[in-house]
Amino acid sequence: MKKIKFLFLLAIVSLVANFGFSQVSVSPNHYSVYFTDKNDSPFSVENPEEFLSQKSIDRRKKYGIEINKRDLPVNPAYLEGLTDLGFIIVNTSKWLNCAVVYAEEESLLLKLADLSYVRADFGEPEERKKKKKKKSKKAKVKDESEDLEYAFEYGEGTNQITMLNGHKLHSKGFRGEGMTIAVMDAGFFHVNSLPSFDSLWANNQILGWYDFVDNDTSLFKSDTHGMMVLSCIGANIPGKFVGTAPKADFWLIRTEDGASEYVIEEYNWVFGAEFADSVGADIVHSSLGYSDFDDDAQDHEYSDMDGNTTVCTRGADFAAKTGMLVSTSAGNEGNDPWKYISAPADADSVLSVGSVTYRGTYSYFSSQGPTFDGRTKPDVCAQGTASTVQGRTGRISTASGTSFSGPIMAGMVACLWQAHPDKTNMDIIQALQKCSNQSSKPDEKLGYGVPDFNMAYLYLGGIGFNELNKNNRMRIVPNPFSEEFYIGFYSEEKYLPISYVITIYDMLGKIITSKNYEDRTDEYNIFAMQELNSLENGIYIVQVQANNEIYTQQVVKQ
What is the domain range of residue 481? Predict the structure, then answer.
């Protein structure tokens, strides 16, 4: 596998003598040029159909998001001015209002001083001394495994779905239908011919693709990494390997050059996210991250992981402001001196995904938080140790890394959002945080922990919550139950820590199970009581002790 790195830092400013302004070098002979404005643009927010698809426009309308000047493309006249000087335009970013250009000779940069619409101060951090860091480890992909015992229709992918209670959403009919996921990666080797993706093509679920590295549409001969990432979501070989959202639609976008690592790939990330927005994607997922570059002078520091500094982090937050949900892998640096999450996982409006083992324990390689400014990251975790993926030869394999926990999570997010299309991207993220197994005590390794998607489904639907108030503190759903039920509880002491003890008794007063939940501070809480299918049918008593108060309710097992 070609090199894929999972940390990223903002381009270092290169000062050109007697130039009069700063200029950013993003890779050999490539430079970013920022513009002062979008004045006299031929594009207008009153005519968004000229630069956004109808689906993109509809997304903004649905969530009450205004189309603003940030959505306008870079002024074509400004680009023409650059080409007249001899620059080759590589790509442009409307959100950053900049262009990445190619110049054979650095001396050509001096001519930019003649253009009044080129910014003298790019708003980038000044050059500073960088501490040398050990180079990032790329994701380790294991050799193709022997066939495992098949279980249910998911086959070898069973555990990575069931640990999230994702099968419960699938059984309700939510498998990603109508949701569009843009996957940004290094390449999608043989996605057009490997068996896991047959149904995607047969059902026209691959909506299109683009390569921002080579600026063409030929990406099925490049890196295998994106192919394996896509399989975690979209694979569909019943009984052998099924992904987390096998009925979703996809855009495949190459933004990463697996052969090198320069800050131009951060810009490519933004270009790809803007493209995803323009074609109407609902979710953007990337198993990419940046902090360490081939040019050590460009390396990021931990202080840059503050949610506001790096190019791709700013781009990720801009993407979230369009209404898309941005999902990103946390990184594989947990066992390295760096150890921290990588950009854009530090962005405050993205879902950053760490890794756990098949038992739900911390994967030693998973990058850790918090962000430099003290926020909890990663947000949530999924199985990233020995994840099931499509192998390059056609066989089903295993691979390890947050590269795979990330898309496993992103596919389930698509199913959850399909079930609750009225909710915003941030509603979905907050529901997952609240419905994870460490929601009351998030930490630097697992964040809020492993989410229960069935609990999140109930939470977003208001089940157990809408009717709860100070006079109606407790509700159990479903009741009667067969395998599991959920307890909704209302606390008048909002923001004050409450410890809960939940106990289930049989009718003779025998304790069936008892669980402790420490220091909950939410007004509404939801608790999962699972793996109860072995109980005999009958009536049971559920007792909730909230600090010194006790509440009871009957529940029926059938």
Answer: 474-557
